[in-house]
Amino acid sequence: MNGGSRQYKVIQWATGAMGKSCLRAIIDRPDLHLVGLYVYSPKKSGSDAGKIANRPETGILASNDIEDIVALDADLVVHAARLGATHDSHDDDIVRLLKSGKNVLSINGNTFYPNWSKARRDKLQAACEEGGVSFAGTGLNPGFAAERLLVTATSVCSAVSSVSLSEVVLTDEIASPEYVFDLLGFGKEVGSVDMNSDEWAPAQTLNAMFEDVVASVAHSLGWQLDEIKRKHRMLPSGRDLEVRAGKIRKGTASHIDWRWRGMIGGEEKVLLSIAWAMNDEHVNGGDKDLWKLEVKGIPNVAISFGVERPEGIPGRTSAEQMAVAGTVVNAIPTLIEAPAGLVSLPLATPFEVLG
User: Which residues form the 2,4-diaminopentanoate dehydrogenase C-terminal domain (predicted)?
Assistant: First the structure.
């Protein structure tokens, strides 16, 4: 928390499910002042931010014109654009925001810049220096589960041989057919794409995001990885499924496993496993814990971790969406006050004290 010493001026970029959750958190925080809202949809343009967020009117009208956003006086932009065909597909917009003197906080990876290509790193660093601002990423995963919680769990060990994080995400309530079938890859014929190749757009995007996570964990533990191996797979549905986004035919992909393995000397040192599932058909034992963290060392450590909605909170915002928004608003003061340039956020960031 910043102790009420300063109120930061914030712009929210995009209002998908995660973006709206961040927008609500910004409006609700007394140390943050919403000054702008960017939307992709012309239908939302001109609407009050409060109406979009299911909050009282704010007097801030949404705009789908980037020039309106660039012209605003703001400390920071929360960049919550939908994942693109490639991980760097939004970089030109981010560069414009940085050059205009606005710090940018991404919820789509961007958490460990040392793992980026030199060309991308140099481009974004130059934009930061021109604007005198900083750029970083945060979120649940990437952002918190491995880079913070898993690394912190090793603090009780006198020696560590390997670490792992597994995540299971039930995706049957995602409404967008484009997102579910085109970007995530559900409903595809199993074996029709090479999931371990960056030639398939979803793989390129997710490899870039989550290989940063593996590299960050290894860096925090003092390990120099030889390579990061991929072992992704699709699993078929045993029956026709009707999900919110549409129909998944029997035999096509209803479960997608993403696995990244950080290797040293031929041994697996860091494992990151993410399962996207339309049901629990391929989930071991029907286990629906959001995360499981394991440390092999002296002693071994095992943590099952999830988030839950508080009682009495209105609306349909999920606990996971609330948690992403929490990581965002808590990181804002840290990023604004950081020296100009690319930033990897620390293990802990401030939070707001209630009451």
Answer: 210-345
pTM exceeds cut of 0.85: yes
At residue 73's C-alpha, the angle toward residues 68 and 75, to 5°, is: 120
Instruction: Report if residue 151 sits inside a domain.
Output: no
What are the distances in angstroms from CA 243 to CA 5, 180, 276, 317, 319?
48, 10, 14, 19, 21
DSSP state of 83: P
185 with 118, same domain?
no
- Which tens digit of pLDDT belongs to each residue from 138-194? 999 999 999 999 999 999 999 999 999 999 988 888 888 988 898 788 999 998 989
CATH (domain of 24) = 3.40.50.720
Strand partners, 302: 294
d(CA 250, CA 243): 13
32 and 134 assigned to the same domain: yes
Q: What is the pLDDT of residues 71-101, one digit of tens each?
A: 999 999 999 998 877 889 999 999 999 999 9
Alpha helical stretches, state H, 45-115: 49-53, 66-70, 91-99
